[in-house]
Amino acid sequence: MATDIHIQMIDVHKRFGSNVVLDGLSLDVERGRSLVVIGGSGTGKSVMLKCVLGILTPESGEITVDGHNAIRQSSAERDEMLRKFGMLFQGAALFDSLTVWENVAFGLIQGRKMARAEAHDIALDKMGQVGLGASVAELKPAELSGGMQKRVGLARAIAADPEIIFFDEPTTGLDPIMADVINNLIVDCVRRLGATAVSITHDMASARKIADRIAMIHKGRIIWSGEVGEIDNSGSPYVDQFINGRAEGPIKMEVLRA
Amino acid sequence: MRVTEQIDALVTLSTNPFKYLVAPRIIAGTLCMPLLVAIADIIGIFGGYVVGTKSLGFNSGAYIKNTVDFIELGDVTSGLFKAAAFGFIIALMGCYHGYYSKGGAQGVGRATTNAVVSASILILAANYVLTSLIFTS
Fold first, then answer.
1. Which of B73, B92, B94, B72 is nearest to B84 (CA)?
2. Which pLDDT score, from 0 to 100, does residue B2 have?
3. Taking Cα atoms as reference points, which of A90, A80, A62 lies closest to residue A167?
4. B64-96 burial, b if ≥16 CB within 10 A, otherwise e?
5. Domain parsing of chain B, residue ranges
6. For A41-100, how does the pLDDT look when each residue is reduced to its tens digit (9 = 90+)?
7. A209-240: pLDDT as tens digits
8. Distance from CA of A81 to the nearest CA of B (A)
9. How many CB atoms lie within 10 A of CB B51?
10. CA A49 to chain centroid
11. Looking at the complex, does the CB of residue A89 fall below 8 Å from at least one CB of chain B?
């Protein structure tokens, strides 16, 4: 069976000044599956997602979504493409001037011009799916705990029933139990929508739970990818060092010494 | 908003940040500054009346008559026009520096300082240009 490629990145380069972040990154994301990209801090994980979304523009390389070029397109084409996407940001990135339900319904009201009453009902339904009751709907994001904010961010990401969902470090900054709750919600939501999911994380417990496939990024390139079951026998010393969390190995942390 | 990825979040929710964030602020700044100046004009004249009649012993009727006689419509409209221009500058500089702020809380502080400083300088320059245009026409 030929695999159905939903998002394809070919030889993508991105740098900030002299700092090369993506250095020839190539990655295929299969439709309807959950890919987790692992890698250390500062290896270009977030930049990769932002290049696909068009928030950042790579210097060279190709990115296609459903076969359409995602880099060079008009803003109308990009708006059209972004309707397929939902994203959960690392810090949830909730709009702090809006209430919880307005945050969840934002893409429906602003992006799709839905009536507020209708969007309100959908927002409450999506909040229910991530375990948030109607009692928090009128609160401001600042009144919620970190775990609740992540859930609101997740509800907002799935509000418009996206085909593709990006998760940027969904469990960072949460305690292990709340992290597992969020992992379960991610698995549930992705299954229910039948969506393609791309997550980036350095939390291996999270990666094992939500991934169908895992790819490892190091110094702006994908150095290994495979099914989640193969991760312990990857044959790559980089992957072994990362998943076992060892300081010694081929990955050298650049520690500044006085 | 930039530092907490909220602007990126807007983009992913198919919302143009210029239309949603920048345009309303610039319109609000341009429209509301003349209103504030109109209120300040009224308070200024009233303050002059209070000081003139209560403290300096002017006749209140003479104060009002002279005020009405010497104020021309152009005095008020030129002030309101300048206020609209300054409001536009203040909102534009606030949005520009806020939109491109980076580097956490420190970056937000720096962006705020830059917004105030650049708005002040631009207002100074714009005031010179507008004054010379208004008085030569």
1. B92
2. 66
3. A90
4. eeeeeeeeeeeeeebbebbbbbbbbbbbbbbbb
5. 6-41+73-136
6. 878 888 899 999 988 899 999 999 988 888 888 888 888 888 889 999 988 899 999 999
7. 999 999 999 888 899 999 988 888 888 888 98
8. 9
9. 12
10. 7
11. yes
Which of A160, A159, A158 has the alpha carbon at shortest distance from A187?
A: A158
Per the CB < 8 Å rule, is A96 touching B14? no
ipTM of this predicted structure: 0.82
Torsion of CA A53, A57, A63, A65, to 10 degrees: 30
Window B:27-66, CB contacts with A under 8 Å: none
CATH classification code of A1-84+165-246: 3.40.50.300
Rounded to whole angstroms, the Cα distance separating A173 from A169 reads 9
Report d(CA B8, CA A253) in Å as an integer: 29
Report which of A195, A175, A162, A168 is spatially closest to residue A85, judged by C-alpha positions.
A162
Give the pLDDT confidence score for residue A1 in this predicted structure. Answer: 44
Nearest chain B alpha carbon to A53: B12
Is residue B6 less than 8 Å (CB to CB) from chain A?
Answer: yes
The contacts of residue A191 (CB under 8 Å, 6+ apart) are: none
In contact, A84 and A120? CB cutoff 8 Å? no
| Residue A99, C-beta contacts closer than 8 angstroms, at least 6 positions apart | A137, A138, A139, A140
